[in-house]
What we know:
By secondary structure, the protein is of the alpha/beta class. The chain contains nine helices and 14 strands. The chain has two domains: about 1-170, HUPs (Rossmann fold, 3-Layer(aba) Sandwich); about 195-315, Rossmann fold.
Amino acid sequence: MVLVYSDNKKLTFELLSKGSELSKDLGKKSTAVIIGKSDDTLANEYIAYGADNVFVAETVVDSFKAEEYAEILEKIVKETGTEIILIGSNKNGKELASRLAGKLDVGCIIGCTNIYLKDKKLTAERVVYSGNAIAVEQFNSKPGILTVSSKVFDPLKKDDKRKGDIVKKKIETEKSSSKVLKVQEAKTEGVNVEDAEIIVSCGRGFKSKEDIKLADELADVLKGKTIGCSRPIAADLKWMSEDHWIGLSGHKVKPKLYIATGISGQIQHIAGIRDSGVIVAINKDADALIFKSADYGIVGDLYEVLPKLTAAIKDKMG
């Protein structure tokens, strides 16, 4: 059996896509896990997106604690005879996966970019050395625990006609000695670069914060309206918030169109945009690394190129 869990619904949909594929290869079934109050609507959604079964672990735990959630998953894994566990690679998921691996005394691979069976062994790929290489790793024991970030796999098309079993079971856990004293939502500007289909991104080629309006204007005519940036703009200069930061330490994105303006193309930034559909680079340095990762490149000063490109697209689109 392939077990899928994430506290992020959209990420669970994506994991179910790969979970369904792996379960077919194994000749087994995929099961999505819900921890907390019973939610038939969510359970049926998971089935519509590829789950063969949904296991609802009814518990009195009212907030996420890795210790207690790991114990819950441990009991589910032992009861169901799970061979593969896919967990969403967000903040909670990484801690949960590592704790669960320790409790089960099995291997755990964090941040997988591909998962498949090779010679009947569960195999995973992940980016290492800041994106300079891909590590290929295999499990020698079961179950194998893997975490996957958002946007790595595309969700299956929703099929409301799919049927599946919903199993509900009360699971008790030992109360953890740790306490959640306060939960405070991070302040954001309402920007979600991870879901954007078109992104115009800014780098050190911009001379001032005010000049970013040139990228804004291009994004507006493309009807993308989403601005991203490289690390120096958000972390060093503070011209934009970290909501816009794209790269290995920022957000990983998967837009249909990514336009990099004034960005040199260091590997840390490329790691965040590698899955983009089409990458366009604008840089006055013909030897800039960004051109090696771009589908299309414009060598020129962004202060000259952006206004002309914006005007040309505006004219083309009427």
